[in-house]
Target: (2Fe-2S)-binding protein
Amino acid sequence: MIVCHCQNISDNDINNAIDWMRASDPETLITPGKLYRALGKSADCGDCMPLFLATMRQNDNLVVPMQLRNLRAGASQGDQECKATQK
Ligand code: FES
Model:
């Protein structure tokens, strides 16, 4: 099934790219942008993003590495003030 009509990317292309990226780096964070780059393409209109993301989420290799989970929660629970807001 074609997911991205602008770049002619199928669900098989997306799944194969995810599997390849996970096999080559078990700790990588896989994003749509990285998938486009891995396929040698770039997004055009973006209308495919909801279906593109839904297709990605169906792949079991899309897990977020354990060390990258809850980064936002961990950052907001710290005692240190954000350097960007310090005066
Ligand atoms: S349909 Fe995917 S970028 Fe346009």
Q: What stands out?
A: The chain has a mean pLDDT of 86. The CA atoms of residues 27 and 65 lie 5 Å apart.
